[in-house]
Design brief:
The chain is an alpha/beta fold and 306 residues long. 43% of the residues lie in helices and 23% in strands. The chain starts with 6 loop residues before the first helix and ends in an 8-residue tail after the last helix.
Length: 306
């Protein structure tokens, strides 16, 4: 088929049109932005038309691009659907799920273990990532990601709401009784989950809500991994803001002790994210059913919220 443009150029165009950003398209396809610009130029030269008009960091699609996208997006979607169906025909279906290390260790893997009967014909691989841009969607079927549910071109199902409490190990909790916001902030080391993008709650948010007159101490521990922060709290090395639905089993088992009677909440959370129509496949429907059933079971949070 000599008239077909290169597949790389078509994938770059589809991502740019859908996301309206060369940068976001590059992150989605796991390539550099210059590579995206190069593919778009090649496609424009091949077609003899202008596809996008750049205005700073944003791009605007031309009318020719609108028409082209309408046609090729359906074709690419059909190719993806047929490919997924062929992969699903094996007796033991395979699924690759990407997520953050802490979510994998303290939430996803325990739930999959508890649902072994439902996954006996499904081979599941968990790939850990630090940031969303680390995902190679060519090798991953679905992912558990943090955000507000806005992933254009993907289907999303909310699993865990952002709902945090200060927690620590039992022997350190005994030293802090009676628990007060002032004592929590000033007595034991605070374990900070560092995030330069300020995606989730940190100790400054908790301090503003519950102890606005108390200054945050300078002697603290900072990590970039929620799983590592929980591990440090379990070892009694400090106090962490733990996600209640992630550490619920640890609280119920007595391994962690809540130090406050109200949790801090937002509309953000962890979502099950997958390409369109993936959840209609056997493997996609199976994993969605398992994880959303667990989410529903945990929704009755025993802690008041603010």
């Amino acid at each position: 088929m000599r008239d077909l443009p290169p597949l790389k150029a078509l994938r770059a165009f589809e991502a740019c049109y859908r996301l309206r950003s060369y940068t976001r398209a590059a992150e989605t396809l796991n390539v550099g932005q210059p590579a995206i610009s190069h593919q778009i130029r090649l496609l424009e030269q091949d077609l003899g038309i202008k596809l996008f008009i750049k205005k700073g960091s944003l791009i605007t699609a031309t009318s020719e691009a609108d028409t082209y996208y309408l046609e090729i997006s359906q074709a690419l979607g059909r190719i993806a659907e047929v490919s997924r169906n062929l992969r699903d025909r094996s007796n033991r279906k395979k699924l690759n799920l990407a997520t953050y290390p802490g979510i994998a260790a303290y939430w996803t893997l325990p739930r999959l273990h508890d649902c072994r009967e439902q996954t006996k014909n499904l081979s599941i691989k968990i790939t850990t990532i630090d940031k969303e841009r680390d995902i190679n969607w060519n090798q991953v079927n679905c992912a558990i990601l943090f955000g507000t549910g806005n992933w254009p071109g993907y289907e999303c199902e909310k699993l865990i709401s952002e709902d945090v409490l200060p927690v620590t190990a039992p022997f350190l909790a005994e030293q802090l009784t009676p628990y007060t916001p002032e004592k929590i902030l000033t007595t034991a080391p605070l374990i900070h989950l560092e995030d330069t993008e300020r995606r989730w709650f940190d100790w400054s948010d908790w301090q503003k809500e519950f102890a606005p007159d108390v200054k945050l101490p300078s002697d603290s521990i900072a990590v970039t991994n929620h799983g590592l922060a929980i591990h440090q709290a379990l070892q009694g090395q400090g106090i962490v803001l733990g996600w209640t639905q992630i550490i619920q089993d640890l609280i119920e088992g007595g391994a962690l002790v809540p130090l406050h009677d109200k949790s801090l909440t937002s509309e953000r959370g962890y979502w099950l994210v997958a390409p369109e129509k993936f959840f209609t496949s056997d493997a996609g429907g199976n994993i969605k059913n398992i994880l959303t059933t667990e989410q529903a079971r945990q929704n009755a949070c025993p802690f008041p919220t603010v």
